[in-house]
Amino acid sequence: MMKNAVVARRLCVTRGGNPVLRDLDFEVAAGSVTGLLGPSGCGKTTLMRAVIGTQRITGGTVEVLDERAAAPALRHRVGYVSQAPSVYDDLTVRENLRFFARVLGVPRERVDACVATVALGDHADRVVARLSGGQRSRVSLAVALLGEPDLLVLDEPTVGLDPVLRVELWSTFHRLAEAGAAVLVSSHVMDEAARCDRLLLMREGTLLADDAPAALLRRTGAPDVEHAFLSLVGAGA
Fold it and tell me: What is the value of pTM for the model shown?
């Protein structure tokens, strides 16, 4: 049986007296790509921040790699890429990775390996400010990969990318999963659901479904995940 990298039980987050996440139970398996899908504002980013330990929870538990979320032991075992690129615009791609490699204390050889993983070898010596938005996102992903994380959490990494780059990134996610990592990736684009091994469908802070894409379609009788989502919304209305 595949080991779970993340286990959440009755996870709740409240802000300003308003519930943002409501009693969520879910797992993220190692060696697989789990998609977190739902409309903007449904709580995806809050859920991801709870997993990486930067979001204060108001109820329930979140265990990550057999540790409490945010435990110091997880520092080098969890990689996170936010929606906004988190690298230095005035440095080159390679300079950014060398800087973060020193911060993380990882071997310098990891720099070229991570640049290659995100297919930026031809741009390694270009200043980040001169890269496209998609390329800058890939630099952030390369930084997150430096420590060879066991869990990689990606918040809408394909937003704004052209179809070719989206396909390339999803191929990268699956290669990382095949190497044993757990990959949790969020999106509000339902057609990306078919690229996932498992799906968490969210709406208004609740989970509508936690299933494999094919099983979800069989259960709802829908032709695709978008129609399955709408079917589940109607059933819960």
Answer: 0.90
The two three-digit tokens of residue 229, written as one number: 């989502």
Rg over CA atoms, the chain? 18
Nearest to 201 by CA among 214, 182, 215, 188: 188
Handedness of CA 27, 174, 192, 70 (dihedral sign): positive
The C-alpha atoms of residue 74 and residue 150 are separated, in whole angstroms, by 9
Alpha helices in the chain (DSSP H): 44-52, 93-104, 109-117, 133-145, 163-178, 213-220, 225-236
Q: Which amino acid is at 192?
A: E
In the β-sheet with 67-68, what is the strand arrangement from edge to edge?
18-29, 4-15, 59-64, 67-68
Q: Are 22 and 206 in contact (CB under 8 A)?
A: yes
Rounded Cα distance, 15 and 201, in Å:
22
Q: Which residues contact 167 (CB under 8 A, 6 or more apart)?
A: none
pLDDT by residue (tens digit) across 137-190?
889 999 999 999 999 999 988 877 778 878 888 888 999 999 999 999 998 888
> Are the C-beta atoms of residues 225 and 218 closer than 8 Å to each other?
no
Angstrom distance (rounded) from CA 125 to CA 148: 23
Residue whose token pair is 């973060």: 100
| Helix 109-117 and helix 93-104, axial crossing angle in degrees, nearest 10 | 130
